Amino acid sequence: MLLNQFLLLGALLFAVGVYGVLARRNGVMVLMSIELMLNAVNLNLVAFGLQHDVVSGQVFALFIIAVAAAEVGVGLAIVLLLYRNRRSIAVDEFDLMKG
Amino acid sequence: MNLGALVAFVRPELDWHALAPELTLLAVGTLVTVADIALDDKAKRMMPTLAGIGLLITLVPILTLAADGAERSMFGGAYVVDDFSLVLKALFILAGYVVVLMSVDYVREGDYYENEYYTLLLTSLLGMVMMASSRDLVSVFVALELLSIPAYMLAAWRKGGPRSNEAGLKYYLMGVFASAVMLYGMSLVFGVAGDTDFGTISEALRGEGASPIVIVAILFVLVGFAFKVSAVPFHTWAPDTYEGAPTPVTAFLSVASKAAGFVALLGLVFVAFEGAADVVQPFFWVLAVVTMTVGNLIALRQTNIVRMLAYSGVAQGGFMLVPFAVAFEGDAWTVPGAGITTTVLPSAYEAVIVYLIIYAFMNLGAFSVVLAVARRTRSGEIDSYAGLFRYAPGMAVLMTVFLASLAGIPPAGGWFAKFVIFRTLADASTPAGWVLAAIVAVNAVIAFGYYARVLVQMWFEPVPETVALGVDASGDAEDELADEPAEASANDDGGFVATETRQQTMVAFTPGPIPMTGALAAALAITVVATMALGVFPGLVSHFGEVASFYLGG
Amino acid sequence: MWILENAFLIPLIPAVSFLVILLFGRSVIGAERVHKVGITAVGIVWILSMIAAVSWITQVEDATSSKADDAEHALVSVNEGLSASGSGAVDGDLYLAAEDDGHGSDDGHGYAAGPDPVISTADGWWSSGGIDFAVGTLVDGQTVLLLVVVTSISLLVHIYSSEYVKGDRRFVHYYAFLSLFTASMLFFVMAQNLVQMIVGWELVGVCSFVLIGHWWEERPNTDAAVKAFLTNRVGDIGLLVGVAILFGTFGTFDIDSINRAVGEMGSEVHFAMLMASIALMAAVCSKSGQFPLHTWLPDAMAGPTPVSALIHAATMVVAGVFMIGRLYPVFFEGFSIGTSSINLMAFIGGFTALIGAGLAFAQWDIKKVLAYSTVSQLGYMVMALGVGAWTAAMFHLFTHAFFKACLFLGAGSVSHAAHHTFDMREMGGLRKYMPHTYKTFVISTLALAGIFPFAGFWSKDEILLGALKGQESRYLLMLVFGCVVALLTAAYMTRVIWYTFWGEYRGHGHPHESPKVMTVPLWILAVMAVVAGAFNLPTPVLELFGLERFAHLVQTYAEPTHYLNAIGLSHPGPEWEMAAAGLVLALAGIAITFMYYWRNTGPHGLTERNRYAKAGYTFLEQKYYLDHLYTDIVVGSIKAPIARAANWVNNNVIDLVVNRAGEGARDSGRWVYRWIDQGTIDNTVNALGSGADAGGQGLRVMQTGKVQNYGSLLFGTAAVVAIVFVIVL
Amino acid sequence: MLKTRGSFLVDATGFDAWALTLAVFLPAVGALVMMVVPRARELELKMIALGSSLAALAVGVYLLFAFDYGNAGELQFGVHKGWIDAINADYILGLDGLSLPLLILSMVIIPLCVIYSWEHIPEPGNAKAFFILMLILASGMNGTFVAQDLILFFVFFEVVLLPMYFMIGVWGGENRRYASLKFFLFTLFGSALMIVSFVALYFVATNEAGTALNTFNMSELAEAAGGDLARGTQAIIFAGLFMGFGIKVPMFPFHTWLPDAHTEAPTVGSVILAAVLLKLGTYGFVRIALPFLPEGAAAWAPWIGLLAVIGIIYGALGCLAQTDMKRLIAFSSVAHMGFVMLGIATLTPIGINAAVFGMVAHGIITGMLFFLAGSVKERYHTLEIGRLGGLLKSAPRMGWILAISAMASLGLPGLAGFWGEFPVILSAYNPGAGLSEELFRTYMVIAAVGTVFAAGYLLWLFQRSAFGEPKAEWEGHAIADVNRFEWAAWMPLILAMVVFGFFPGLIFGVVDDVSVGIAESISAAVGGS
Asked: Minimum mean pLDDT among B143-152, B236-245, C159-168, C471-480: which range?
């Protein structure tokens, strides 16, 4: 069983995603990075599902894929809105409110 | 491996009565959307009414289920309807109803997509209602996203307003990021337990002990919800979002969605993670202390009332986290039916629920007053409350009641919420518990510090000539000036005190009675009556707490 | 006996008159007629007191006549109306049975077993800790003695004042508080328990406060009043503590029981009694103007002269002496008077007598001379008690009251004539203008000086006797003190006579004799000053006239024999030598002064020429620099050279220890307030507040407003916590 | 969980069962009625305020007559109804010899305050709100004195906070914001720790047998007298109560809120504060801390005594430092409460009796003094002692009242104050429960010295303000003498001073049974272990 490899790959993907979210200024890229993280999760779930020999892992993964799609939709909408108002999608420029 | 066994699909048994509340909500939501498409503009004024009535109707099946009393379980225990879930569903619905009442005029007077607003509100509520019944990682996740995604959009609902947009953006990014982290944790949990339903996880963890993977798994999951309940240091989105979002939405987020987070935590911690007590309890101990202390201290420095309430909400969340820190310090007792012995502390469980209920009403009340007062002052600054007692004594008294309640001063309801927290700690009577009790006591005092600032303005100060044009409460007014580059440059001076760099336009102020509307009056009435009633006869709420805690049996 | 059991009526009447005068004085009665109310009330009380005296005497007669059955008789007669809690009469017969043997002194006159005091109590005054404390009256010889003194003097002063204070701005208040004082004093002397005693003690204090400050528009008067009150409060520390000790030891306030208990337990409770005695001594020092707390008494002369006569000469100031006599067993045990040859009480008394007499020389204010004379005489009484001469002390109290009151009223009459000055340098030659005042004044002076056969002679003689051979060991030092004081007293009083009545009139205006209403009381008192001595003549004297049965009246009727028996007190018989010596000393004093002033012989102007003498004189004039001494101690500065100090004291002659103590306390109060309270405690509190505020400010750094910082914070925390847990667990 | 519904108090029947409830809630009802009356109709508002407070007082008078003095040690007029079943807290009211005097005191003070403020509502006016707050205060105070359930007690104890906060903050003086907030935070902090101790008691308190009581019923907890709790545990829980009550008293060093609050508060605010609110703390000590945790009390008594005597001297020094009449009176409260606490610390019946008497006496006397300060301020527009003077000349009656009050306050026998001080000194000579005699006798002497200081600052105050000629600056001003409202408000207090001074039994007789009971249970518990 190649569980550990799957997990390592998942972890790697997740780390990359986290880095992307925290480091990229472009809103769209941030969304993409989040997708990466979610896919890392899916990978884990499927792998564990195989290991435990249960279907719920795959089911969980399916749910995540579906929900992720919805999430990204909303996310892109918000980014568009921002772009319309501020002509920019650099997430770190939005700090009207703080403190 | 035998995929055949895996794919063999059995159609699950559906208990329509049990699903009635969710279905009703769904129906109402759809109805609102359809009506919006079908009807002409005049009829659209009916939408809030429609939504409100729909919510009230939703209470009916909840009541019938409660009367019926049988515990119903579906989808292999992933979705359960019992007293616990019913109590909280009722709470969500009521909170939602009050929010609708708060929204009616606010949404109508601002330029919003009115109907979609209610659709989203109802959808989000649907997610919460589902959350109350979820007993499985999958259903918890689905419910969470179902309640979050509409909330992201609501936060950004004032599409013209940069602040609103920014609020939405921050909420969204942080939200999805947090849920991604949470999901990663969930996947590990699944890996350890081999299944996604709480029961299995619980047993697996009992055996597992605190191996590194378990620790990481649990912590990541908890972080996801710590974000939801805006616990320090995962709270950072809350003040900005609360300030930027439309006030009713803020109220909604600060009460309903926070409550949903706690509901999920209750399920996870008290049932699924019991085996990992030595990870969970210290984590929550620290989390609770940091949350209430930091929340209180920062709140002391706020000059914008919504922002102040946001931080106060953070601190209150800290109080609600306290029972988790002693969740498993009870004497060993056997769960009726299940036959497993556990050291879960029932009073801790009740404490959270009791606090949730009371907090919902008093906080919604406070926000209602903010809404109402803003209709006169067009400002969200605390200073703008000066002399309120002179020209609108009734409103001042209401605000006093809610703030006193938040500060935990009898006879307003809040005192009982604080009391049950203390009671829990005393019940656990561990050294850590006593220390925590002392910290809670100190924080209760600090908290009054900033509530008092509002009281001082309302009661002690004369009526001002001018008020600062507010951040949010006054609608879009200030967003235009927020666009000016002056604002942006003001932010680059590195000063971290937003309230000092924020450019404020002072406008003349004429005192006078608060322009009330029926809906707002209703919202105030409901909240104040509930707050006082819960204070004078806490028996009501504590009864629900007891009822709900039977859930521990399942 | 009715009056003895219902003695509470006696203080009640003047109390009522107080209320009547205060409430209806101005409105109903009319301001100019209120004195009639007061006089009537006190008159009635005087009659009652006389009846009480008579009925007590008869009771003693019964008791002594038939000893066998008088125990029961006394009990029967006494126990009517007694409460269970109150009287010790139940075990009284035990003491009566303990007849005196061996205590008999030379003339064979030991104790006749007097009756128990008549105690009537009413329960339920207050109750605490399950104990029910009664209120009531204790009437015995000592009480009756004081009843007579107080009511008599008070009556005369009431009458005298009606002229002296006529047309005063606060005539009504004056009489009201005169009545109240009389009531309080009577209440005090018949107090059945210590709490009542305290109540009376404080009430007379307040009355003196009000009456000293009668003319409160002038700052000096109010200062004097406040000072008097505060000094007495200082003494009251002792009173409260002493009473607390007694209560703690015996578990009761009942004076009778306490006295008997001391007699029973004796040395068991010696230490407690010693502590109690020392504490109570402080109270005596303040109230009865004993060294070192006597300094308020001369200032108290700021009050109207009749008040000085009544309160600060005859009655209130003897309260301390009375209390010692009342609780004599306590002091007797505490200071082991019976066995020692010197003790605190005797020394304080003797020393006070001495310095008082000395100070009297240096005064020019006639009232101040009399005030210091009072201090000195009170010291005499305390000394007497200190050497165990109970009877002598009470006897001297009795006689002194009359002639000292007479002297004060005389002084008042003089100033009334000489345009309200009390400075002797503005008098002189008054004997021509006011013969009555003169005669009475001289008579009382002789009495005070102790010239045979005037009253003072007899009482002083007994005191000296007591010191000489009263107890097992003689109190030699006290004897010396006594003799010196006898000399000085005669001398300074003669000086007063000279400056006031002889020589040429140095004042202005035309002095005139005072009206009858003032002179008549003077004469009455003068007569008493002559005859009062007859009340305790020693047996041998009377044998000459075959009147033995009138011997030692005070001793026979006033002594609380049932206590004194128990502690074993003995009586000295008379000594011709002693009497002669005392008389000679007094005459010598007069003679010297007479030579000095009348015959103008002796070292005149010595004080100007001889610097030692001058220093000595200044020393006296400045009251031994006592006040200055206190002041320095309290203020903590270093003491200045004598002369400058003298000058300084002259300028601040009224600015005395208590005020200074007060200011000292105020300064320290300010210091504590500024530095401790506002400075430390309050600041800590405020610091906490602002600290929280600042903390909030600082924490806001977290809230940068940049979403990605939020994200890193979130994930960072999660990661860190995870790592920590993995390491820890 | 285990539920104990048994109570040691006999439920009353008929009107008696309602008497206490009425006594507590009549003012609150009055307040509710006033809320609906428009602000313009001032006379009606005042009438309602006066009426409801007098109605409560009427109930109080009934209680005075119906009270069975024979067994004042027992709770009477008992009411026992369910309230919060989940936490086993009930609605229990009861009245015994300890509660009665204080209840009556607060019932009397309120109408007097209403009368006093009849014509001068302090700035910025608004009689409606002013009287409503006063009535809410009344309900809270009455409730605290009769509540026999810890949670109920706590609720009432807290109810008084906000009204007083607003009273100081809205109608107060220059520095009112600071003073009011300080007052509030101090008390809130104390009560937070107090409630912790309450719940701790709920879970750890046991009966003699060692079985947990799990009750908030005060009479049961008192009956158990700490049960078999270890001395250490008791001491810890006692510490919480100590903070709660000690801050309210206030004891040194928690006293700093008091002078500010008193000085800034409007006249009637100070009166209520001094007369009743401070008593909540001392009452709590006697009613709750001592009987529930005898050994904790014994362990803490020396420290309480120490703080008490420090308070006595310290308060006196503070008074001497003041130049403001009102602030001086405020500081004197610290000293007087020191005497009360010393009495409590002796753990003897005499001491506790004296403490209760001291509470009532201080309530009457200091209340009176604050009334006077208010009236002086009204006439002279200043309270600078240096600028006053000749009050006896310009307003003789007021001067005499000041004299009487000052004399009473400095503990003159024959006036009420004496009986709060002298017995304390007595009791300190023989402290109970095996406390160190040397220590407490030292305290006794210090306390006795304190009486001299008291005389010092009060006479100083009186001499400067009342004696002498009126200052030149007041030539023009006509200083009005006591007016009829003031007479009406003051007469009862003055009479009370004198009556209680001469008949102390009136209070001692009522309280004695209770305090004897408490002291016995303490010595029993301490001796027993």
From this structure: C471-480
Virtual torsion, Cα B368, B370, B372, B375, nearest 10 deg: -150
Q: What is the pLDDT of residue C85?
A: 39
Q: Concatenate the DSSP letters of all residues of B16-49 into one string.
A: HHHHHHHHHHHHHHHHHHHHHHHS-HHHHTTHHH
Binding-face residues of C in 648-707 toward B, CB within 8 A: 689, 692-693, 695-697, 699-705, 707
Enumerate chain B positions whose Cβ falls within 8 A of a Cβ in D. 350, 389, 393, 400, 404, 407, 409-411, 415-416, 418-420, 422-423, 425-427, 429, 437-438, 440-442, 444-445, 448-449, 452, 455-456, 459-460, 537-539, 542-543, 545-546
Residues of chain B with Cβ-Cβ distance to C688 below 8 Å are none
- Amino acid C626: pLDDT: 55
Find out whether A68 and A38 touch, Cβ atoms under 8 Å.
Answer: yes
Rounded Cα gap, residues D22 and D333, in angstroms: 31
Nearest CA-CA distance, residue D514 and chain C, Å: 10
Q: What is the pLDDT of residue C646?
A: 35
C374-394 burial: b if 16+ Cβ within 10 Å, else e: bbbbbbbbbbbbbbbbbbbbb
Instruction: Please identify among residues 44-83 of chain A the ones whose CB lies closer than 8 Å to any CB of chain C.
Output: none
- State how far the Cα of C391 lies from the Cα of C462, in Å rounded to an integer: 8
Domains of chain D, by residue range, sit at 15-528
What is the least distance, in Å, from the CA of B117 to any CA of chain C? 25
Q: Which of residues 222-281 of D touch C (CB under 8 A)?
A: 253, 256
Question: What separation in angstroms does the CA of D253 have from each of D24, D256, D259, D341, D438?
Answer: 33, 7, 13, 13, 24
Q: What is the pLDDT of residues B180-238, one digit of tens each?
A: 999 999 999 999 888 888 888 888 888 777 788 889 999 999 999 999 999 988 988 99
**C714, B177: Cβ pair inside 8 Å?**
yes
Best interface-test mutation with B: which of C693, C703, C706, C712 has the largest number of B CBs within 10 A?
Answer: C703
Q: How confident is the model over C418-442, as pLDDT tens digits?
A: 777 787 777 777 778 888 888 888 8
Asked if C389 and C519 count as a contact pair (C-beta separation under 8 A), the reply is no
- Which residue of chain B comes nearest to C713, CA vs CA? B233
Rounded to two decimals, what is the model's pTM? 0.87
Burial of C51 (0-12, 13-18, 19+ CB in 10 A): middle
How many beta-carbon pairs under 8 angstroms link B with D? 100
Distances (CA, A) of D378 to D366, D402, D466: 18, 15, 16
Q: Which residues contact D232 (CB under 8 A, 6 or more apart)?
A: none
* pLDDT score at B522: 92
Q: How far apart are CA C23 and CA C56, in angstroms?
A: 36
Q: pLDDT category, C557, cuts 50, 70, 90?
A: confident
Domains and CATH numbers, chain A: 3-87 (1.10.287.3510)
Which residues in chain B are closer than 8 Å to A60, comparing Cβ atoms?
137-138, 141, 186-187, 190, 196
Instruction: Name chain D's partners: 3 or more CB pairs within 8 A.
Output: B, C
* Residue D4 confidence (pLDDT): 36
C689/chain B closest Cα distance in angstroms: 9
Contacts of D143 (CB under 8 A, 6+ apart): D24, D152, D155, D156, D159
**What φ, ψ does residue B81 adopt, rounded to 5°?**
-115, 110
ipTM of the complex: 0.83
pLDDT recorded at residue B499: 40
Instruction: Express as a percent the part of chain C with pLDDT over 70.
Output: 79
Q: What is the pLDDT of residues C336-347, one digit of tens each?
A: 787 777 788 888
Q: Per-residue pLDDT tens for C272-291?
A: 888 889 999 989 988 888 87
Please judge whether C717 and B298 are an interchain contact, meaning their C-beta atoms are less than 8 angstroms apart: no
